[in-house]
Design a protein that fits this description.
By secondary structure, the chain is an alpha+beta fold. 30% of the residues lie in helices and 19% in strands.
Length: 626
């Protein structure tokens, strides 16, 4: 950051050039320096990853909300599973749904820009051009639910506590933060270990601030069912552990009239009921016990809602398109296991999945095959590499498969009959090239005699019907495959300890990828249980591409560098790509309204509201219905 001391800290040597130019020009140059410094340190209302924020300092509300939305009413939602804690920041316990409603962040990200943060607790922020630090100015009106102000002490305490006592993922996510410092009661300074990482100030801005005075006499590292003190739009009104939790809107919420919050958080009450089984949740929806559901099963979407209340549009079944990056869901291969160490073996295994048959027979042709780690976005690679992408990849030509430079990645395609003979023949050739041959009716390594076998670990019974046909095709290749279904606790523990061969998982993506890519693919994350490098990738090329992506100076270079990384990951064949849907499948009782303009990120209930007229009409229709 520039200061007067840095600009005028020493007297420049006077020479003949100054005498020739004249003091008027020297004065003009000094004014330019001061103007540049002022521009770089000006307190901004918002900050974009690249370029300028869409919304100016005087904006009234986001374009995707209804600023006149009425407040009131209630909505009932369903959650599968259970909970035993209101502490969401530690690795212990199962936390309750809705806890994000309890705490405010320093910044709020808009839903119609790639990555831009606007001040919530923060009134404005100072950021130098190299983004080596950020100073947040806190709003004087920001309050906790007990009326006490949110101060710089709270921000510093929150960050330091999360880094020492919070979930290990915080230490990984904020690893580039060198320190946090209280400048005064309303100013906090974060300093970073690197320059040019444009995302770091925005990442720190996502920090949910916690009340230091509340936690100072409590053990932060333990689970709790005591409703915590917060600052957000809701607090916990009632609950029964493992069964339900009810959130009530704060009548005098301090940020309700800020432009970033206007038209949002409209329900007076939000209730989450817990169920053990999704089938029961669907029946509860049709019975009117819950009000809204996002359906995630194609079969249920196609068959389970052919009922009178849907036909009569009392219960609305609707597909809402979005431009949200789909990321990658995959059957992930753990390359820490010797069986998946060879790229040819991984590619051969991926050829055994018959997506076309699966989509037609199990998914009613609702899905699109995923062919990018950044699917459904401009960040996804497609076609042959462009000249710009080749310029990035060329230094690594000797370290990468030749396919990266010659052809786009294409997921295997079949005729949908369930007998993908051509793909299986390709798989056989790849396996043989890797030294795996058929002996005694099984696939074994030609040198060691080791049997090619692995286990697919699942936590959802509903996915068995997808995996079993895949296992059947693997058997045709002579590969022994076991499918094991475990409970959620065992599943989580095995993930954290890398005790699995193949697992169904994925990586969500945003429109502005950055530091989280280290968490997903870097060599440094391969041994960290706090990271999401499930595949165990250790590739120096991937490491360097991640750093190039993070340091991208503008949007165009970010897109190009992301596509280059995408190509390298795809041709690494670290998993069997699944499928995605560029829409939200929602069902809701016809007593709610939402803004006409849906954000590119998709549906969000925080922008909906309870419609009194619809609710009265629906009540009458229910009485008349048989």
């Amino acid at each position: 950051m520039y200061s007067k001391n840095k600009i005028f800290g020493h007297q420049p040597r006077k020479d003949k050039r100054i005498e020739r130019w004249g003091y008027g020009l020297v004065f003009a140059i000094c004014c330019t320096w001061m103007a540049t410094a002022a521009a770089e340190t000006a307190c901004r209302h918002g900050m974009a990853m690249h370029g300028n924020p869409k919304y100016g300092a005087d904006f009234h509300h986001f374009d995707y909300v209804n600023p006149e939305a009425p407040k009131g009413g209630s909505i009932r939602l369903a959650v599968q599973g259970t909970y035993d804690s209101f502490q969401d920041f530690i690795p212990k316990g199962n936390s309750a749904s809705g806890l994000s409603l309890l705490y405010d962040q320093l910044l709020v990200n808009s839903a119609d820009e790639p990555f831009t943060g606007y001040g919530l607790i923060t009134e404005c922020m100072e950021v130098p051009e190299d983004r080596s630090q950020v100073v947040f100015h806190l709003r004087p009106e920001a309050r906790w639910h007990d009326g006490k102000p949110i101060t710089a002490d709270d921000v510093v305490w929150t960050f330091e506590t999360l880094m020492t006592k919070g979930h290990p993922s915080f230490r990984f996510y904020y690893a580039s933060v060198a320190g946090v410092e209280k400048l005064d009661e309303r100013r906090v300074k974060f300093t970073f270990k690197e320059q040019g990482n444009r995302e770091l100030p925005l990442i720190v801005g996502q920090l949910q601030v916690l009340p230091k005075h509340y936690w100072q006499d409590r053990d932060f590292s333990r689970t709790t069912l005591e409703p915590p003190l917060g600052s957000g739009p809701y607090w916990i009104a009632s609950f029964e552990a493992g069964r339900y939790v009810t959130w009530e809107r704060i009548a005098d919420y301090w940020a309700a009239d800020l432009p970033i919050q206007r038209g949002q958080y409209n329900f007076q009450e939000i209730r989450y009921d817990y169920y053990r089984d999704t089938t029961i949740i669907r029946e509860a929806l049709k019975a009117g016990e819950i009000d809204y559901r996002e359906e995630n099963q194609a079969k249920a979407w196609a068959l389970d809602y052919d009922v009178p209340m849907v036909q009569e549009e009392r219960l609305i079944q609707e597909t809402v398109s979005h431009n949200r990056p789909a990321g990658m869901q995959s059957l992930i291969m753990n390359t820490r296991r010797p069986v998946f160490a060879n790229r040819n073996v991984r590619q051969a295994i991926s050829l055994a999945l018959d997506f076309e048959w699966t989509n037609r027979n199990l998914f009613f042709n609702q899905y699109t095959r995923t062919e990018s780690y950044f699917a459904n976005s401009e960040l996804a690679s497609s076609g042959p590499p462009t000249d710009e992408e080749l310029a990035i990849l060329e230094p690594y030509r000797e370290q990468l498969p030749k396919e990266v430079f010659l052809e786009p990645y294409r997921a295997p395609v079949t005729d949908g009959t369930g007998w993908s003979r051509e793909n299986l023949l390709r798989a056989v050739r790849l396996l043989q090239d890797a030294g795996w041959v058929i002996r005694d009716m099984g696939r074994v390594h030609q040198d060691t005699g080791e049997i090619l076998s692995f286990e697919i670990l699942l936590v959802s019974k509903e996915f068995e019907r997808v995996v079993l046909p895949f296992a059947s095709n693997l058997k045709r290749l002579g590969i022994e495959t076991k499918v094991r279904l475990v409970d959620s606790s065992q599943y989580i523990n095995r993930l954290r300890s890398f005790d699995f061969d193949m697992v169904l998982g994925g990586w969500g993506q945003s429109n502005s990828p950055g530091n989280e890519q280290r968490d997903y693919w870097s060599s440094a994350s391969a041994d960290s249980p706090a990271a999401r490098n499930f595949a165990g990738i250790r590739d120096p090329v991937v490491d360097e591409l991640i750093e190039l992506l993070i340091k991208a100076p503008d949007r165009g270079s970010l897109v190009t560098r992301t596509k280059a990384l995408d190509r390298v990951l795809l041709h690494g064949h670290y998993g069997v790509p699944n499928w995605h849907l560029a829409a939200d499948r929602i069902l809701y009782w016809n007593k709610f309204s939402r803004p006409e303009n849906t954000a590119p990120s998709g549906v969000s209930l925080h922008r909906w509201w309870y419609d009194q007229e619809k609710a009265i009409r629906l009540a009458g229709e229910k009485q008349e219905a048989p």
